[in-house]
Amino acid sequence: AGARLQGLLAIADKRLAAATWFAGDDFSFGDIVLGILYWRYSRLAWDRPDTPNIARWFAALQQRPAYRKW
Question: Which pTM does this prediction carry?
Fold first, then answer.
């Protein structure tokens, strides 16, 4: 499962290298859903691959007012 997840994170990181959000320049429902999943994943004690674009995206997501309210 860990190897599969690392592969999926690599795909997501590559996508975010070309865009601010998963759907491009506009924040979308996809960012919300993936943000919830990534938040859960970030709380697990696993070795994580280096995904700088996901890190940038998640930091931007955490700055949104609705996220901070949650």
Answer: 0.87
